[in-house]
């Protein structure tokens, strides 16, 4: 099923006239994952998103599918065990998206440091065992300070003890969402973006049986009916619950995470780097190379502003510039070096006190000597096959912190998830991390199987969601490089240069052939390459790109990582999309203005 503005009217008619088994509200990664698994299980499923798919949190992460070694800062083995396992699963079901990229973790002689050279090796060894990469090419190792500086000459050398190197994965968060959405639609789900839920409907017994929805593009309201309604709206979970007079559920405490992008010529790092801030606040931040740029973040502060349009503030920039210049003192990065930025809201559960990866103050998350020594003893016994993995997990779970705070800082709020059923039957799946989305959806499906069996006598198809590949990911995940080469050759056969052909293969995976098939219908648009032109046509016709920002920000990375290349192409993109969409002169001007505003905001012109 193609997702486009042309197919939207029939989609809306289906929403109005059909009764669905499951209606999912929220088209971020959580909702997209649920919609895919539910459809594959045989449920007649609808998915509604009030903005573009992934427009909120799910396109504004650190863009890693990480195993969570950072959670070993407080030895949260449950989180680490889950995330390293799920990282491998996500790579298997979306093999064209997450890619392995070892992470460098520099260690400094500083009282506020998360790890020292001894504890980081213990943590990495435990991490590798949980991840199942011990003895492989991705096994961790430590390097000396001299070697760390050879790798990253710009690193601060003062008090540098060395570094750890361990496996992590880079990710394209927004594309992971759209590929889940496309696969769900291909299987028969009815999916619609820019449809806002403005009310919850109930039957005569007070049970939630649908929603009152508004077509954001026209303002018209209509009803959508379903046996079960599920709230997967991320930061908006509590806000949606507030419009249901008969429901209550978890309270979300959103925190804001900011990332800044600079050109690699200003600061080049050979591999993703995860470092203490060095400012005595017990916090850590990422520095990641990507597509000729370097981005760094993140912040973690409470947020109570406009959820739909969170903004980077001066304080966010000041903090991150201070952190980056502290760890890379020769770089001298200033606000004028920032080419792009993004800010997202984390849907953290306010009533869960587990520590988050950033910790709080300098002492938060520090483990008592007795607990730490016991952990090392058990870990060593595990290495000698004298203790089980369960023994290690118990030792870690029972760790006692040397200090605790009754009032949690934003960085201490749990990244855990919650699955709740309100009195009226409204199901809410909240919290979590992008790495956990498949597992969260699988947990929701267990509940749905029970609900449909008990209340409707329906037996759902059993699926293995660990092998349910998303759109673009239908190939052997153990043979990614060769497969990408194959799809690169397909694109090159259409006359696309090698570098652009590889970019298409990496972006679209097994859909690459479908993308380049548009070359049989269209030629390179004036001012655009053939690859740009084909990508735009495919995205508009089959990926629900309704605006230039949809395409240039979330379907591709132009605005974030290629704004310098985009500058001379903006008018060409406007002209070609106007032709595809049939925009009037007025609509075309409005679209161009919206694109310019987005670029200006992303570039932080309002702060410069």
From TrEMBL:
<dbReference type="Pfam" id="PF01266">
    <property type="entry name" value="DAO"/>
</dbReference>
<dbReference type="GO" id="GO:0046168">
    <property type="term" value="P:glycerol-3-phosphate catabolic process"/>
</dbReference>
<dbReference type="InterPro" id="IPR038299">
    <property type="entry name" value="DAO_C_sf"/>
</dbReference>
<comment type="similarity">
    <text>Belongs to the FAD-dependent glycerol-3-phosphate dehydrogenase family.</text>
</comment>
<protein>
    <recommendedName>
        <fullName>Alpha-glycerophosphate oxidase</fullName>
        <ecNumber>1.1.3.21</ecNumber>
    </recommendedName>
</protein>
<dbReference type="InterPro" id="IPR000447">
    <property type="entry name" value="G3P_DH_FAD-dep"/>
</dbReference>
<dbReference type="GO" id="GO:0004369">
    <property type="term" value="F:glycerol-3-phosphate oxidase activity"/>
</dbReference>
<dbReference type="InterPro" id="IPR031656">
    <property type="entry name" value="DAO_C"/>
</dbReference>
<dbReference type="Pfam" id="PF16901">
    <property type="entry name" value="DAO_C"/>
</dbReference>
<keyword id="KW-0319">Glycerol metabolism</keyword>
<keyword id="KW-0274">FAD</keyword>
<dbReference type="InterPro" id="IPR036188">
    <property type="entry name" value="FAD/NAD-bd_sf"/>
</dbReference>
<keyword id="KW-0285">Flavoprotein</keyword>
<feature type="domain" description="Alpha-glycerophosphate oxidase C-terminal">
    <location>
        <begin position="466"/>
        <end position="588"/>
    </location>
</feature>
<keyword id="KW-0560">Oxidoreductase</keyword>
<dbReference type="GO" id="GO:0004368">
    <property type="term" value="F:glycerol-3-phosphate dehydrogenase (quinone) activity"/>
</dbReference>
<dbReference type="InterPro" id="IPR006076">
    <property type="entry name" value="FAD-dep_OxRdtase"/>
</dbReference>
<dbReference type="GO" id="GO:0006071">
    <property type="term" value="P:glycerol metabolic process"/>
</dbReference>
<feature type="domain" description="FAD dependent oxidoreductase">
    <location>
        <begin position="21"/>
        <end position="352"/>
    </location>
</feature>
């Amino acid at each position: 099923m193609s997702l486009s503005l042309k197919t939207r009217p029939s989609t809306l008619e289906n929403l109005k006239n059909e009764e669905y088994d499951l209606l999912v509200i929220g088209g971020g990664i959580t909702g997209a994952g649920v919609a895919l698994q539910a459809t594959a299980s045989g449920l007649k499923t609808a998915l509604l998103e009030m903005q573009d798919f992934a427009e909120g949190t799910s396109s504004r992460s650190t863009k890693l599918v990480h195993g969570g070694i950072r959670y070993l800062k407080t030895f949260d083995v449950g989180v680490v065990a889950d995330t390293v396992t799920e990282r491998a699963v996500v790579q298997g079901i979306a093999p064209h998206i997450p890619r392995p990229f070892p992470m460098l973790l520099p260690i400094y002689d500083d009282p506020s440091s998360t790890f020292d050279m001894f504890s980081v090796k213990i943590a990495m060894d435990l991490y590798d065992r949980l991840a199942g990469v011990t003895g492989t090419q991705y096994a961790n190792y430590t390097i000396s300070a001299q070697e760390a500086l050879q790798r990253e000459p710009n690193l601060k050398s003062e008090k540098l003890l060395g570094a750890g190197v361990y496996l992590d994965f880079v990710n394209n968060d927004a594309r992971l969402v759209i590929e889940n959405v496309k696969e769900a639609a291909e299987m028969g789900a009815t999916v619609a973006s820019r449809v806002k839920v403005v009310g919850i409907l109930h039957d005569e017994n007070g049970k939630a049986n649908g929603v009152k929805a508004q077509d954001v593009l026209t303002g018209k309201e209509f009803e959508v009916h379903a046996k079960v309604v599920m709230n997967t709206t991320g930061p908006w979970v509590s806000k949606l619950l507030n419009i249901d007079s008969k429901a209550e559920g978890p309270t979300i405490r959103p925190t804001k995470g900011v990332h800044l992008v600079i050109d690699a010529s200003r600061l080049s790092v050979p591999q993703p780097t995860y470092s203490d801030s060095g400012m005595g606040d017990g916090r850590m931040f990422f520095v990641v190379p990507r597509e000729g740029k370097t981005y760094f973040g993140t912040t973690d502060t409470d947020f109570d502003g406009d959820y739909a349009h969170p903004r980077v503030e001066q304080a966010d920039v000041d903090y991150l510039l201070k952190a980056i210049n502290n760890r890379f003192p020769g770089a001298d990065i200033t606000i004028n070096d920032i080419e792009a930025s993004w800010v997202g809201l984390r849907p953290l559960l306010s009533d869960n006190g587990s520590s988050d990866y950033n910790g709080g103050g300098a002492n938060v998350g520090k483990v008592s000597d007795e607990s730490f020594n016991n952990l090392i003893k058990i870990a060593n016994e595990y290495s000698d096959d004298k203790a089980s993995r369960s023994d290690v997990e118990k030792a870690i779970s029972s760790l006692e912190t040397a200090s605790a705070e009754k009032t949690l800082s934003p960085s201490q709020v749990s990244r855990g998830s919650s699955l709740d059923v309100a009195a009226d039957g409204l199901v809410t799946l909240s919290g979590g991390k992008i790495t956990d989305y498949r597992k969260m959806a699988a947990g929701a499906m267990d509940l749905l199987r029970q609900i449909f069996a008990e209340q409707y006598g329906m037996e759902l198809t059993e699926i293995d969601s660990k092998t349910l590949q998303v759109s673009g990911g239908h190939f052997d995940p153990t043979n990614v490089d060769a497969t990408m080469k194959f799809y690169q050759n397909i694109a090159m056969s259409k006359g696309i240069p090698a570098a652009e052909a590889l970019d298409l293969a990496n972006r679209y995976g097994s859909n690459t052939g479908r993308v380049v098939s548009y070359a049989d219908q269209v030629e390179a648009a004036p001012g655009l390459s053939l690859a740009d032109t084909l990508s735009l046509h495919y995205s508009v016709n089959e990926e629900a790109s309704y605006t230039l920002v949809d395409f240039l920000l979330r379907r591709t990375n132009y605005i974030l990582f290629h704004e310098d290349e985009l500058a001379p192409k903006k008018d060409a993109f406007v002209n070609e999309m106007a032709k595809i969409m049939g925009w009037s002169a007025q609509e075309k001007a409005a679209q161009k203005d919206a694109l310019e505003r987005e670029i200006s905001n992303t570039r932080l012109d309002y702060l410069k």
